[in-house]
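Entry 12.
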Amino acid sequence: MNEISRSVVVGVDGSPSARHAVRWAAREAACRRLVLVIVHVCALVPVAVPHAVALRRYQDALVEQGHQWLAEAAGAARESAPDAAVRTDLTGGSAADQLIGLSASAELMVLGSRGLGGFTGLVVGSTAVAVATHGHCPVVVARGADAQTEPRQDGPVVVGVDGAPSSQTAIPFAFQAASTRNAPLVAVHAVNDVPIAAVRKSAADRQTIEHHDSRLLSQCLAEYQEKYPDVPVEQVVACDRPARILLDHAKSAQLVVVGSRGRGGFRGLLLGSTGQALIYHAACPVAVVPSPRP
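Predicted 3D structure (tokens):
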């Protein structure tokens, strides 16, 4: 596959979810003035296997179907964002492996929340999680209220902030997204990952913790508030599980942004529980932003 740097890459397979992802990715590529690369992955059959002739016919049909899906996706992309430069690519192999490889030179990877056909297994919890976990660039799972509903284009951008290095990479992404959309930003920090811990503390202790975490949140945001003075910012410090409070805010948001792993994550666990919960259940697109790799 050709070099795809300075591009937004979106995977398609003919599913309604993938079509929503294409339209979302096309608008994003146009806003960023990047090339949109629409990719379909076929599970190609080795020519040396038994019954190769019959399998080859089946494979040819898959390739033909893939080209049709790419053409339909390109049409939808141009309809959604007439100014976007659009390319299509069909390749073979494992969907997750191919997309992770492409993410090394892309600026953004976009996937639908549920798939079929060439992206066999592109269901939340398999390929989408694999790419969000191992992708080299930010990965957006273009979720809607359900698989048939296109993601909303209004509401704030929400970012989860916990002071960990991974959330520090999510913050500039979220500010840029809010600025390009002329949308407000809601920065959410959960005081306690386990709510019962807060219940056991005295009211004075909880107030001290919340005051400390409010200062931490302000410090994390300060640099980017200066850089993006056009973005209105609401700071939310809540005594709740991060996933629960972010899912609640996602109901009225147009995008939720998180780092790939929070401060409570296990060593070596690339995608934290909060990111997984959002990919599974959020009512809006979810962006997972990886930490810089050594």
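Annotation: The beta strands are 7-11, 35-42, 86-92, 108-111, 139-141, 157-160, 185-190, 233-238, 255-259, 286-289. DSSP finds nine helices and ten strands in the chain.
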